[in-house]
Amino acid sequence: MLRLLFLLTCALALLASSVASAAIVERSFYVKNLTLRRLCSEQVVTAVNGSLPGPTLRVREGDTLIVHVFNKSPYDLSIHWHGVFQLLSAWADGPSMVTQCPITPGGKYTYKFKLLQQEGTLWWHAHFSLLRATVYGALIIRPRSGHPYPFPKPNKEIPILLGEWWNADVVGIERKAAATGAPPKISDAYTINGLPGDLYNCSQNRMYKLKVQKGKTYLLRIINAALDNQLFFKIANHNMTVVAVDAGYTVPYVTDVVVTGPGQTVDVLLAADQEVGSYFMAANAYASAGPAPPAFPAPPPFDNTTTRGIVVYEGAPTSATPIMPLMPAFTDTPTAHKFFTSITGLAGGPHWVPVPRHIDEHMFVTVGLGLSICPTCLNGTRLSASMNNFSFARPSSLSMLQAFFFNVSGIYTPDFPDTPPVKFDYTNVINAVNPSLLITPKSTSVKVLKYNATVEMVLQNTALLGVENHPIHLHGFNFHVLAQGFGNYDPVNDPKKFNLINPLSRNTINVPVGGWGVIRFTANNPGVWFIHCHLEAHLPMGLATAFVVENGPTPESTLPPPPVDLPQC
């Protein structure tokens, strides 16, 4: 009897500890116009709670996050919680017309979800039009109380959000691009925590400053919130130790340069171990397209400017001239590829999931540019983009998740192909302007998956209209990055390169320029999950599709009904 009582007491204590370690974190977002002065002029932008970046949300693993979004802006919008698994809470994922209709001006919606089985740095952003240029912020998930990091505890944690700035109305930029069929205007500046830095006009005093003490260690939570650019990031004379990416712990990796694609996060430890002084931190573009061969389409223009902040040691003389890091060349693909392929997952660490070995669904998916018919455009076509030659078009009358839950037909079609409709020499630039390969039909095609199915997907870049690196983001899941390489994927020899022991686990992969990447994940979350290129210029062009994951056999594997305040179209 005493033993039974003892066991019962222990069980209740364990339950109480688990409950006590999970909190409800509630915040309100007021989205409205904000006038900011940047680069010598004033610009009206859309922002959250009057700040750029928006508020940083800090939670612990296991917490429930509730965010009331009040749309006081003149635009439709929705908020996506980038990288959050949304286990049984797909209604809160946020991509407009995929999991919800947008929140109209004057409307509101409450996002409610649990942060489960993941720790680290994620972020939130608008998922409508180009509004995420200024509607974004950090989402930091710390371990539960009493659970340490799997690396030495830093003295301080600092979010570093890398963004882009336009001296123009970004919604107007997108509308013009849609009307003309041309690419959108490139940005005028990059920013660090909303500030462009002293290399831009009228920006001498608009530079982010990080104060450090010699001998202390700082956890920099780096977020690439840029719309259309992969970025190199360096701090003069300092190495950084990567300890996590996309809220997944890694084997510590020492580097002097961080490379991030739009949507990706990288956590690094920065040791203040240099001479007392001032050191610039800087970020500029990794423009993967590079120069075009003769007689082939020129690569798209990109913002070739540099943003910088400053790391200032306590006691540094104010008269000291900061040291500038030597940045990689814009087209330094070897440096980018080394960074992306050298980091491995922390097998056995917190929330580590082993690589699934049994595969239910094999997919080979091409990603790249093309053209679509446009009678009103100058040449009768507009730039387009596709996956397996299907250029994604969002529905307009009902969200895809509502159609899934209420079994409404006509919103999407379950016919996304497992392989390209036409096989060709995918990365050979001779096909860059092959007219028989360029036209991409518009559709809302999806891939339907059984609950708990394991998917292996080869993502193959093409050379159509040029070659470039594509950051592909999957909503609702992390995936294992088994391998990456250049050229056409070889189904005989490339699987021999797969890392099945400790591959990187993340939610956004940079598919190498003129190359391929292989990912694998288990579809253990019912709902509709977007997969798309996180270059914002390519998303409206249609470089996307979605997975429809069917309900499982139990209530714990079945999507619950939508919230009563879900926005309607």
TrEMBL record:
The keyword Metal-binding applies. One of its GO terms (cellular component) is apoplast. Its main location: secreted. Transmembrane segments: none annotated. It is an enzyme of class 1 (oxidoreductase). GO terms for molecular function: copper ion binding; hydroquinone:oxygen oxidoreductase activity; oxidoreductase activity. GO terms for biological process: lignin catabolic process. Binds 4 Cu cations per monomer. It comes from the Eukaryota. Keywords: Apoplast, Copper, Glycoprotein, Lignin degradation, Metal-binding, Oxidoreductase, Repeat, Secreted, Signal. Residues 1-22 form the signal peptide. It is found in: Secreted, Extracellular space, Apoplast. Its cofactor is Cu cation. It catalyses: 4 hydroquinone + O2 = 4 benzosemiquinone + 2 H2O. InterPro entries: Cu-oxidase-like_N (IPR011707), Cu-oxidase_2nd (IPR001117), Cu-oxidase_C (IPR011706), Cu-oxidase_fam (IPR045087), Cu_oxidase_CS (IPR033138), Cu_oxidase_Cu_BS (IPR002355), Cupredoxin (IPR008972), CuRO_1_LCC (IPR034288). Its EC number is 1.10.3.2. Residues 32-145, 157-316, 415-552 form the Plastocyanin-like domain. Belongs to the multicopper oxidase family. Lignin degradation and detoxification of lignin-derived products. NCBIfam families: laccase (TIGR03389). This is Laccase.
